[in-house]
Amino acid sequence: MAGEWTPTYLADFWVPEMLAAAAPRTRVLVLLRDPAERYAAARERATLPNARRWDDRDALGTFQRGLYAEPLRRLLNRFPRDQVLILQEEACRADTQAQLARTLAFIGLPPAELAPLTTRPSAGAPAAALPQAVRRALTDAYAPDLAALAELAPEIDLGLWPTASGQTA
């Protein structure tokens, strides 16, 4: 058994077709995060020492990567639903062992206990505060996509995402 992971696969529109041609029986794992929190985290990384300057192209690209419904639809058009496991970062952090068990069962591995994780202090913490106007704009802009995502992947618990519930703080 072998595996490979990259966060760009879902965003790159050509990947599902190429992956289906190369490995039609593969098991696909998708990990999603609250899109506005994802955006805020990317913006925060741009403020780190030695980070390149954040510009309008970064803002647009980062926003677009938080639009999950259409890329997921493309993936599901190429792979049967039983070959795709959709996970949420927030659920994985809240109940790591249960999500690990679910993932291992999905890929056909025996159950395993996870050693306690040591994480960076910021791991799992909310990203740096965005200005309220930006957060409200993101919440409004992501709303139609999140509605489509809920129909496409009903196992996603949108209640775990402040963006989906309209919380802007």
Descriptive report:
The protein is 49% helix and 6% strand. With 169 residues, the protein is mostly helical. The protein has a single domain (26-162), classed as Rossmann fold (3-Layer(aba) Sandwich). Strands 1-2 form a two-stranded parallel ribbon. The chain is globular. 17% of the residues are buried. The mean pLDDT is 89.
Strand order of the largest sheet: 1-2
Tally of separate domains: 1
User: What would you say the CATH architecture is?
Assistant: 3-Layer(aba) Sandwich
List the helices and strands in order: HEHHHEHHHH
Report the C-alpha radius of gyration, rounded. 17 Å
Largest sheet: 2 strands, parallel
Query: Helix- and strand-based class?
Result: mainly alpha
What is the approximate shape? globular
CATH H-tier superfamily: P-loop containing nucleotide triphosphate hydrolases
Number of strands: 2
Average pLDDT metric: 89
Q: Which CATH C-level class is it?
A: Alpha Beta
How many helical elements?
8
Low-confidence runs of at least 5 consecutive residues: none
Strand content: 5-15%
